[in-house]
Amino acid sequence: MTKTPATSQAPVASAPKRSLTPRRRAREYALQGVYQSLVMRRAGSLPNAAAIAKQLAEDPGFRRCQHDLFQGIFAGVLERTDELEGIITPALDRPINELSPVEHAALLIGAYELAIDLSVPYKVAINEAVELAKTFGGTDGHKYVNGVLDLLAQKLRSTEIQAG
Question: At 51, phi and psi to the nearest 5?
Fold first, then answer.
């Protein structure tokens, strides 16, 4: 029987591998960019969308994302942040500036896809935003994102929901 020295380190559990489609990657990079923008705004700075996009594009994984989807979501959310926050705010149980930046970014992306990009089915828009919140957010943040976007979908996509 071999004894392990008391000073040896326990094996480090690695994160499970995720299978990322180019579309999921695009949304993840969009979330990172929107997050950066929100953090900069909260700090009183004006975010530079081009600089943020350039920085994200330098990541080796970026080349495997669907670039047009990334650009559409990222630019669309930044151009319409005030409008999207106006859509989101009535569904919140707290002031929007009290949301974590990850939840805030996921809600902006979900609201963008629900309200603006009608080519995305409402279930996909909600699911993708929830998955972003699960991956990058706090423990139960995804549940909050799901609840808020479900309320928004009922308002914004009622015809689609009724059609089944």
Answer: -65, -40
